[in-house]
């Protein structure tokens, strides 16, 4: 490596001496001169702080450099080089994947060399035939037909020494699909660090829309709202700490991507569409509810307008805290903040939702809830009980029941960890912030016995 470096420096010096000649330089010579100048600029930061002379780290002869800083924004040449290198790398990885014709070849080989007899009309293959298929298929298939793959599938086979041909084929298809998706996501990872920012994810979803038959009827004017609705679910659950980026690995391992790519199917049952957050009917429903709440049609929601959300029984105290803790504009909530609010309330049992709601409940910003905190929110429930002429309920009884459900490590305070681990976080939060949920919980073991309770349950 050192000899090559000396040869390169000698070449640059010889070219520099020829700069004075009158005849035009060749393209290669110009590139070499530019490289020398660029290298000299990079070497300016490698001077000894005491002598000011250039230093040379001889340790690189023995220990290769393994950390490379990202190019600075002003360094356009280095950024372009990094971008081109990443593009070539992703193209190379893409060529390593199996295409449709290669999958057909794999299936024909598996069918031809399966181990008889078929069991329950399902074909199986033993390890000897498996190795034969791997050799016949060629080098490109080797990474999918390894001994480790056979062992993993054998563990769930149920038949000693044999694995299901269909299970093996599905495994290969799933692996290729994951790698294709990873490459597709990585194309939007402009820094190459394995993360996507919100704008990166928005670009990815926007370019996916034309490939989804289920979204063909979606008006183009609604595309931006659809993208926002889709991206918020990814970031709400995969970035609960609000860092502004999510790992590509997390996107691939969560189930959201499967739900999103399900829209490629030509036909999806109506009930399945309603349960899929990413479907057109679901996105239109969420946005339609937002528009219905927006009584003054200014595109934002005030506290007065948001109180109509859901059953309309969220307590004013809770909504005050929502607007105090969440991002608002002149005291009103935009669509993106509203989506976080909806996702939290519709998925109250999830740790990410409890994290969101705990931040709102933590009035004193101490990282835990005390009896004072619980009483602060329960006053809203007591006010609703009074409005509906229901029998007053003693706070001490509710407090004791909550602490019994949570069983916190410290008997005087409830942390977010306690709330998540107890398995009753959804119940605890609901009976503090929503009268309808509290009444349902309070009467879970008895029937409706009074006009007041009928009125409460009808909300």
From TrEMBL:
Keyword Repeat on entry: yes
PP2A regulatory subunit B'' EF-hand domain boundaries: 190-266
SUPFAM superfamilies per record: EF-hand
Entry GO MF terms: metal ion binding
GO terms under cellular component: centrosome; cytoplasm; nucleus; spindle
Protein's GO biological process: cortical cytoskeleton organization; microtubule cytoskeleton organization; regulation of dephosphorylation
Record's subcellular location: Cytoplasm; Nucleus
Keywords: Calcium, Cytoplasm, Metal-binding, Nucleus, Repeat
PROSITE patterns: EF_HAND_1
Coiled-coil residues: none
Cross-referenced PANTHER family: SERINE/THREONINE-PROTEIN PHOSPHATASE 2A REGULATORY SUBUNIT B'' SUBUNIT GAMMA, SERINE_THREONINE-PROTEIN PHOSPHATASE 2A REGULATORY SUBUNIT B'' SUBUNIT GAMMA
Protein name: Serine/threonine-protein phosphatase 2A regulatory subunit B'' subunit gamma
